[in-house]
Amino acid sequence: xxxxxxxxxxxxxxxxxxxxxxxxxxxxxxxxxxxxxxxxxxxxxxxxxxxxxxxxxxxxxxxxxxxxxxxxxxxxxxxxxxxxxxxxxxxxxxxxxxxxxxxxxxxxxxxxxxxxxxxxxxxxxxxxxxxxxxxxxxxxxxxxxxxxxxxxxxxxxxxxxxxxxxxxxxxxxxxxxxxxxxxxxxxxxxxxxxxxxxxxxxxxxxxxxxxxxxxxxxxxxxxxxxxxxxxxxxxxxxxxxxxxxxxxxxxxxxxxxxxxxxxxxxxxxxxxxxxxxxxxxxxxxxxxxxxxxxxxxxxxxxxxxxxxxxxxxxxxxxxxxxxxxxxxxxxxxxxxxxxxxxxxxxxxxxxxxxxxxxxxxxxxxxxxxxxxxxxxxxxxxxxxxxxxxxxxxxxxxxxxxxxxxxxxxxxxxxxxxxxxxxxxxxxxxxxxxxxxxxxxxxxxxxxxxxxxxxxxxxxxxxxxxxxxxxxxxxxxxxxxxxxxxxxxxxxxxxxxxxxxxxxxxxxxxxxxxxxxxxxxxxxxxxxxxxxxxxxxxxxxxxxxxxxxxxxxxxxxxxxxxxxxxxxxxx
Length: 570
Ligand SMILES: C[S@@+](CC[C@H](N)C(=O)[O-])C[C@H]1O[C@@H](n2cnc3c(N)ncnc32)[C@H](O)[C@@H]1O
What we know:
Blueprint: H1 6-25, E1 36-38, H2 45-58, H3 61-71, E2 72-76, H4 79-91, E3 101-104, E4 116-121, H5 132-139, H6 142-147, H7 154-165, E5 166-177, H8 187-196, E6 198-204, E7 219-225, E8 231-237, H9 244-253, E9 273-279, H10 280-285, H11 295-306, E10 308-311, H12 312-315, E11 317-320, H13 331-340, H14 344-347, E12 357-358, H15 360-363, E13 373-377, E14 382-383, E15 386-387, E16 392-395, H16 403-413, H17 417-420, H18 424-427, H19 442-446, E17 449-453, E18 455-456, E19 462-464, E20 469-470, E21 474-478, H20 484-491, H21 494-503, E22 506-507, E23 510-512, H22 515-519, E24 522-524, H23 528-543, H24 549-569
Parallel strand pairs: 1-2, 1-4, 2-3, 4-5, 6-8, 13-20
Antiparallel strand pairs: 5-7, 6-7, 8-9, 10-24, 11-21, 12-16, 13-16, 14-15, 17-19, 17-21, 18-23, 22-23
Helix pairs in contact: 1-2, 1-9, 7-8, 20-23, 23-24
This protein binds S-adenosylmethionine (SAM).
């Protein structure tokens, strides 16, 4: 069971109660009338904080037990969690914990009460993979049919259900992973929020970990209400060694706020967090995702939209690299083999051996004798404007290769037949074991193209008109209808970085240069002369040597200036 840090639950509780009391005050209602729900109580970390905060500020001590017995509900699907919650509540002096409304129930399928003023919690984060039964139990209900979406997480249901049973002037406060605001798999969730709620406050943990053991996990606290708000506050916490509790207190009481930067990515900002004022309309409707962009910066995005005649997906094809289905022997491959071959010594196969992807030594007997053996690039070989020499080879083994090549491919691949036949298409009888799973169109790799790794700290696009084969973690921009060097310069510019960092996709600090963000990248309406100026410089950078780094930086800066000046003058 994952427990929420006290510092986080204290902050969420105090902020929610303040928001709720403000909302109630405008209607002359008192918190004493509020109905409160924790839908996934776990060890009761929210409830301990809640009960203490209510007593400190909102409910007289002698009335608290009565209030909690009638106005508070806690739920968990696990009986052990309910027991633990009671135990923990008793430890902090709630002697009547056994008499509280703590129910062992499935919140999503077995809870039908309505009309809550505050719903607060840390829902379970579970993917469908490996948890099919947990999902289908919800999916089979009316509620589940309405909200299920492919690739979703279980916590989406908790938000959706909570919105259904929240009162009009109520508050929903949750801590979840941050990715759903920009995930394609969360479009129904975003639509549910768009249709019936708006943000009151959002706290983005950035690179700071909210849960100690969760590496690479980016968290978000959000407060939603059903009333439409014109704007809300977005707090981005910087990577800092300062105490999280103190940072959250400062957010709570508006202390140590650094002034909102003009442009909301601020690499140089050393404060604990940055607060921006965000327009609700812009956040929810500028793109299919939720965009937490300050009102100060929003104008640029409106200008970009107005001056975009084409997006990249209309000016070029964006293709993913190759999926072999078995690059080199993995642990899993070996266990498949062991199941089928009695004598391990006979296998003559070990982890790391090249199947379709070969190292220099493994490839040596095929170099120059097999035309389907090609150089194979890793995504780390590709950086902005340059491509490193690859160390690997690929057997580009497809239905179109010559008989002589097929013979050589089989010679190398036959000993891996058992492994290769475990690929889905081979099991279905659609793919001979010695063919690549998704070889794509060969022209993608042989013709003129711009390539990029799927994930990079900065835009990293490089031009090539040579053969360049790489796997699915590399994207290929081909059939370019513009001057390709203009597109190259444009994509590597600080403008693209700015745009993608704000409204593209990110994983922590990394930009995700996937099909969709690339396809949707606007190509702003730049004059033909300026396009040529950019293309000329991008070509010069591509052809220059590493030792020209000063010259390269100068050229890059010139490209950035041309694009930004054009944008401002539009
Ligand atoms: C991430 S833990 C949060 C625990 C606690 N609220 C906290 O923050 O420390 C999620 C909790 O949700 C409970 N849970 C999982 N599925 C549930 C469901 N369908 N209905 C109610 N509770 C559920 C789990 O048993 C677990 O205790």
